[in-house]
Amino acid sequence: MTPAYWVAQVRVHDRAGYAAYRAAAAAPIAAAGGRLLVLGGAPEVVAGTMAPETVIVEFPSLAAARACHHGAGYQATLAGRDAAAEVSLAIVEGHAG
Which residues belong to any copy of the DUF1330 domain (predicted)? Predict the structure, then answer.
């Protein structure tokens, strides 16, 4: 099975609110088989522009990544996330390599 990823660029405006979102989102992400690979960290931008923080979550499949994002458990966390940060998020299928 080919893994899939959530790749997010994040600008946090409210650290406490964003921490609350992360805590709430952890259970639905884990239930879908999601595994946090990258969280924050100042990027060394070598081309173009990026948000100050990057988040990458790995899922066992594209179906799992989509189901998690569109599922009721994760959707219930979005109001908190959106109040605390600007987020650009893509769901990307991995390379079977």
Answer: 3-94
